[in-house]
Structure formats: C-alpha cells, structure tokens
Fold:
Amino acid sequence: MGTENDLDVEGQTEPPIRGLTRSRSVSSQSNPPSASPTLAGTLVTDDELSTAFDPDTAHTLPVPGVCALLNTNPENGLDAAEAARRLQHHGPNKVEGAKGLSLWTILLRQVSNSLTLVLVLTMVLSFAIHDHIEGGVIVAVIVFNIVVGFIQDYRAEQTIQALYALSAPTCKAIRAGKVETIRAEDLVPGDVVRLGVGDVVPADLRLAHSINLSTDEALLTGESVPVSKHAERVLKDRDMPLGDRTNMVYSASTITRGRATGVVVSTGMNTEVGKIALLLRSGRRDAGEAEASGIRRVLIKARNGTRVILGLDGTPLQVSLSKFALLLFALAITLAIIVFSASRWRITDNVLIYGICVAVAVIPESLIAVLTIATALGTRAMARGNVIIRRLAALEAVGGVTNICSDKTGTLTQGKMVTKRVWLADGTEVSVQDTTHPFDPNSGTVSINGEVYASSDATRRASTDEKTTAQLRDFLETVALCNNSTVTAGNAYTAVGEPTEIALQVFAMRFGMGKPALLTSSGKTLLSEFPFDSSCKRMTVIYTDGTNSFAYAKGALEALLPLMDISDDQKHSIVAKADALAAEGLRVLCVARKSVDPSLYSQDALDISTEEGPGAMPRRASAESHLEFVGLAGLYDPPRLESAAAVRKCQDAGITVHMLTGDHVKTAVAIASEIGILPQPNGVSDNGAVMVASAFDNLTDAQIDGMERLPLVLARCSPTTKVRMVEAMHRRKAFCVMTGDGVNDSPALKKSDVGIAMGLNGSDVAKEAADMVLTDDNFASIVTAIEEGRRLFDNIQKFLLHLLVSNIAQVILLLIGLAFKDDQGVSVFPLSPLEILWANLVTSSFLALGLGLEDAQPDVMQRPPHDLSVGIFTRELIVDKFVYGTAMGGLCLAAFSSVAYGVSGPYGLGVDCNEDWGDSCGVSFRARATTFATLTFLLLITAWEAKHFTRSLFNMHPEKWTGPFSVFKTVWQNRFLFGAVSAGFVIAFPVVYIPVVNRTVFKHDAITWEWGVVAACAVVYTIIVEAWKAIKRRTRKMKSVGGEA
Structure:
C-alpha cells in the first residue's frame, strides 16, 4: 500500500516541488487585541502570536513548540469561547476566488475596442447634421455588437464558478476535549483536527499524531502518487519545498490512507492554496505599477486604462483590429479633409454630408458584428468538441499558438496508476499496453514473453491456463490477496483504495485471478494481516485454505530483499532489473511469499489497523523471514492513448509541446519519450531538452534567453517555475498556451496567453484562471481547439478581405466622384449615404458571415503557425484587397460614367440631386442605381472568390471535384453563403424598383438597359480576379521550383 522503490525511482538530488514563498499576512479586525493563556500560563495577545509564530516554520518545530506558540493543547484543543474569539480575529477559513467579472466589466469588454469608438463618433456626427436615418442605423449596429458579445461572455462566465468547492464543507475538530463536527470555514489557527481516509484537509496542519498516513497532493504539487506523512519528524530547512514537508498536510489535499490528528497553523488566504489564489486576484498587474508611487503610478494606471479602452490589450487579433480601426479613423479624417479642401473649405450641408459619406465608406461597420457572431458560432462547435470557451477572444487566439506548456498528471496522462511491466523470478516478462481505462481489466493488451493476448477476459483466462507458468500464478495470487483495494464492474469499472493496490488488483483481474475470484474458488480465509507502515515499507498477509497456509508480501525492494533466502548473485540480478524498470520511469514494487505454519497465527491477530498487542511484532518478524522471491512489478501513470497522436499533430502544425510537471525527472522523461515530446529516446542525445526545475530556476533571465531553445521537459516544477517559463516564451515573442488541472498550475494559466484547464479532475482554482476548459480532460481536445482557432483565423481573413475590398472600392468611387458635378458646380454623389450603409451593413454583412462559416482548409494542421509579428493583415491580404478594391472601384466608376455621360439627357446631372428627386435628376438617379447594382453584384462575386486566396473559383477543390461543373458544388458547399449570395441578388431588384423606396430613401431610380452595363462589369471583374489568382499561383510555383533547385 503506497510501497515503492524510492531509491530506484526518486532521484534524491532532485528537489521536489516548491511552494510559494510569499510572506504571510494575517488579516485583522478593528477590535483591540485580546489576550489568551499560553501553556506556560502567561498572557499573549493575538497580535503577539501573529508576530511570534510563522506558519512557514511549522515544519521545523516539534509539536509541543507549535502548540505553545499557538496557545493550544493537542489533546483537548481550544474551548468554544477561545475558538469564537479567534474566528472573529482571523476571519473565516475561506479561500477567496479570483475577482469575478461583474456585469459592468463584461459590458466594458464589448466597447473596449477602437472600432466601436469610431462607430460612436460616426454616430454622433450623423445626428449632429440631422441625418437621423444613418445615425439610427449605426446605433442599431453598435447595440447589436454589444448585445451579442455580452450574452456570449456572460454565459461563458456562468459556466464555471470559483474556488468554494475546494474547501471541505465539514471537518472533525477537538474542542474542549470533545470531538465535534464543525463547518470547515469555522476553523481557526490552533484548532486540533482529526483526519481519516477520504477526508479533504480543511486547512494547513502541522501533524501531531499520524498512523500510516498518506495524502494526495496532486492538485497542489503535481505529484502523481500519494505522499507518506510522519508527525514525529522535525525538519531543519525553513525553505524546504512543500513536497518534502512530510510533517505537514495542506488544504485541499485528500487523505488516501491512514489517520491523523493535526494542529491548524494557517487558514483561509494564508494557506498554500490561498496564496496561489492571491496571485489570481492580482491578475496581470504591471510590475512597474507595483513599484511606482505617486504621479508615476497615476500615469501608469492612465496608460493601462487607455490601452484597455482602445482595445490595445488583448490577443494578437484584438490588438491588430484595434490598431487597424485607429488607422481607418485617421484615414476617414484625412478623406474628409480632402473633400472639404476640394470645395475650397466652403462647407455647405451638402459638402458636410459628402465628407461624412466618404468617412463612413472607410469604416467596415459590420466587422465587429460579423467577428462576434462567427466566434460565437465557433464556441458552439468547440462545445461539441468538449471545449468550453470562457472568453470569445481565446478561440481566435488559440489558433495562433506556437508553444503548448502542458502539465503531465491527468492531462497528458490518465492520472491513475497502471501495472505496466512485471518481471518474474524465472525470467518471464509480462507487459500491459494501450490501456484506456486503468480500472478496466479488459482494457488494452497483455504480452507474455512477447506473445500478445486479446483483451477479452475469457480469451486471456484460457490463455493463462495454457501458457502461464506457475510462477506467474504465484505472482497474481500474491498481489491479489496482499491487497485491500476493491474493483467493481457496473456501467463502468470503479475502484476504491490506494492507487498502487488498485493497479495490482486490476492486473490480477486481467487473468481472472482477482481477490474475490480467488477467495471464492480456493476457499482461502485470512489468518492475519500486517499492514503497510512507512517505517518498514512493506505489507504482509497470511491466508489458509485449511490445508496449506502462505504469507504473501509486497513492498519496496530495499525492504524485502534482505528478508529473502536467495544468493548474492540473485540479489544483484534483481537489483539490476529493478534499476532497468526504474530507468523507464516506473515505480518498482517487490513481491514475495512463503509457506507458513498456520498454528502460529490466530484469529485474534486480525487487528489490521495497528500492530500493537503482545506477540504482534514476533509474529510479523516470523511471517516476513526467509521469503521466496516471486517477482517485480513496474507501475506508472500511463499516457492517454490519444496523447501521442495529439502531440504529433501539434508538431506537424509547427507547434512545440513542452511538459512541465511536478513529478520526477525519470518519470517525466519516460512519458515524454512515449508520447513523442522528446524526439530522441529518453531525450539523452538532445542536449538541454530535459531540465530539472531547480537548475532552470537558478538561471537568470539573460541565461534563459541565451539558450538555443527552451527545454521540452521541466521536471519537479513549482508554480514560479511555470510562470518563468511562460515569461521566457513571451520574451521570445512566442504565443503560448498553458494547460493544467492543479492549483499549482493556476498562476501560469493566468499568465499565459491562453490558459486551458481540465474540467473533470481539475481544481476550481485552475478553472477560474483559465480561458478555456476541457470537459473531457483530454489533451487531444486541445488539438481540436487549435484547429478550430486556425479555421477561424483563416475565415476572419476571408471576410476581412471581403469587407475591406468593399470599403476601398467605395473610397475610390467617392473620391474620384468629386469630379462629377452638376450645372451649379456641386459634386454629385455616385452613391447616396444610405446606399453605402446598405452595401456595408446588409449586403456585405451576411456575405462576410457566410465566409466566417467556411470549413477548415485540408492543410490547416500541416502548416506552421501564422507570423504573430504580422498578425491578421498579411502581405497577401493587403495586396489582394487593393487589387480587388481598385478593380471594383474602377468598374463602379465606369458604370456611373457610362450612364451619366454616355446617354446624358437635356438636364445633364440635374440640380440638387443629392437631397431630393427633381425633374432634372433622372440621369443622376439612374446612374446612381446602376452604380449601386454594380457594387452589389461585384460584392456577391467577391464572396465566392474569397473562399480561397489562390485557387480558382472554377477549380477550388480539385481533391474533391473536377470538371466544368465543379463550380456549382463549390458554391453549394457552404449553404449559408449560398443563401446570402442568393438573397443579395434577389433583394437588389426591389431596392431598385419599389416606388418611394428607390427615389425617396435610396436616392436612385429604376433602370432598364443599364443592366447590360452591370452584367459587363461583373464579367470583367470575374476575369480580373481569376487572372490575379492565376498570377499568384504561377509565382508560387516558380518560387517552389527555384527553392527545390
């Protein structure tokens, strides 16, 4: 039970995980300090106690010393009055979560971007010049953007609640000499708490008494197996790592074996869990702000606030779009100045309206709405892939990840022990592979001396009868009977007990020799049990069937080897094999047995909880002497079956996976090699790929930055090690994801660009800190998230191209349109303000949204991450938008000119035709309608052409469809986009022809022969776009050939 070959598995020179060393602060009330009697009879105030006693030194003091400093008695505890007074002074034993997001904060998120601010300014100007229709439309756009984003963020925030589940709801405390069940939050320093198997430790305790105690500290330290605890030990090093403080138990850990009594030394935010939560509350506060004072601090806060409001703090896409919006705003002002200058600054109402029209044409009003909706739909797709998105921005951000820093236990591995290798005395070797469920004896395959057996229990049982040696049967019988765990089958296999014993019991059950089956078939009964004890590191049981009696033992190799009747050569052989198993990262157990005389053991020896009583130790010594060696068992926490494929897929996508774990370096290296994180076997030949956290922590930032690359495996990590790793990646301009499940992962989750927590076995602290939560705790789901993020990034580029092409075309059309003047020298609008808004908000929005729903490209996970320094606006996107925008704007100008000057009526362009219909406005209104129809149809064509930046619309998916009719399958593939194009085509006709709507609202008139001009422009535009794509394909092909040469 909990036995292991510590010598072979744990490198003693490697320091275990360290806890946070933040100085302790004790909350105080306004009440005057009161006095309480010490054991010596003097009076000491609570403030004096806080000064005299430091919980970080509790492990260096004997129990009486701790009790004296805390004014308590380990036998009787505190009385009710003293406990109440201390509760008032220290406050409740609760860990406060990271500051939750208020509704106001969520709302502020939606408006904290430059594009929204630009829209607000445009709205204000529209109302200022009494253009209520345009202003009202922009108001609707702003409200829609805010509502969609608010609803999504609010729902995500409600999916995960913080921290309170970590605290044990009740506990057993000794008050005035009586054991009472009290609320865990009522504990105070000095309380005496009783602990048993399955209890959650309610506070940080200095152990006063312990019997066979082990705790599971995986959520706090990352250790994958329980840690043995010993109340009697007094340690010397004040700064000893948490994992080595074996006389302490910490809040939120779980008792897996034994029982104990402990004195509370820290509660609430002063516990180790509380210190980590305190880091989360501080968030990403600027270090300079903490050190600055006075005016400088005010300036730093103002700078940070401005960055948040302008959207310059966030993911790469958020920052890129915010900077782009500021650029567009500057461009809009510049274009308005150009319009005013062209009128020689004689700014009439018409000139002012025209200037605002040009400015509005620059702004992609629907961008935020399209981006928000596309991302929200992406979150639904991610939910089907077992990923909860807590922040919309995290979805697009994860698509640009360059590095993944993953915890090992429970993330890359299954978080449970499995018997992987067995070596028997006769040389027989048994191994277990491909286990997907550690509790299921039918999961995976079994190999005996290289011969693989099927996974079904019946087949394996039959194989056992034919192939298995007597030595293996002895081994299975020993590990099954010398075992207190239970494994039961129901809808799914469940297990209760210590992880090591569960692993051995499941292994025996694989051969049909589990403990219940053996007891039923053989009629064996238990005579005596000598339980595991950390001082002797072994366990022995004695069974009899009425005829024969045997002692079955298991334990650490160094504990059992001296008790065996074998030669020195055999001992050397066993040690060598144990070392070989340990080198594979396995935890090694030794198994032995012997025949005994049942008369030496009686039923009154069945006190299995202690070894007290006359004759107990002589009976144990007799049972554990002259043992026969049976075999060695190698156990480990196996990787998830899909982890290797997920890691390989990440590497194919140019993403580097790092393992950051609190476990031992041998175990970490074995798992990393097995799943492919380390490219060379065991990482030996790859210098610097594996480091122990102590060595990494001793490096300065400059030394870390000087490394050729950061280590792929960091073992024995502390929370600060993980944070330093993330900071080092940031200095290298990497965009990193941190995954984890434990409390110890939370600061790094918060610090990383995208934090991903485990939903099933993860702590609430980790979920609170994360941007995403995996509902199945599967590392492979991260690959799904990255793939979805990349798909979203590609689609954002597609609809950005579509929206910006429209804006560039309108700017070209409106600026050059200044030359179109009526008889009074007033510029005639080629497009009315409402036509511009209609094209931007109605026609383009649904087309852009359709592009946002495009499927992922076939090679989305076979290409490296996009360049974060370039961001969303790649060179190709910028060039394409100017090429297509110029072509579209030029053709719209050609359409207007063809009607306005090709068939000019007696009134030319009329008089005052920008505001209302008049008898002289027929030509200008028809020219405007032709231009509007041309712009609309060219936008519809662009939507389909933007599905791929280089492939022709007529051969876009050659891997799926070929031939002249493949274009129809291409456009039909995305049903939403097909519907948006169809609707855009159909709705253009009523907008042009419905009376009143056309002349009064849109300032254009019905057209007839002009449709020929529209069709010609559409054909020419398609030819230009296809020609440009062909040029790009030919250029890339030439570069590819040149590179190969």
Remarks:
- The two ends are 64 Å apart (CA to CA).
- The first helix runs from residue 6 to 9.
- Residues 33 and 45 are 6 Å apart (CA to CA).
- The chain is about 45% helix and 15% strand.
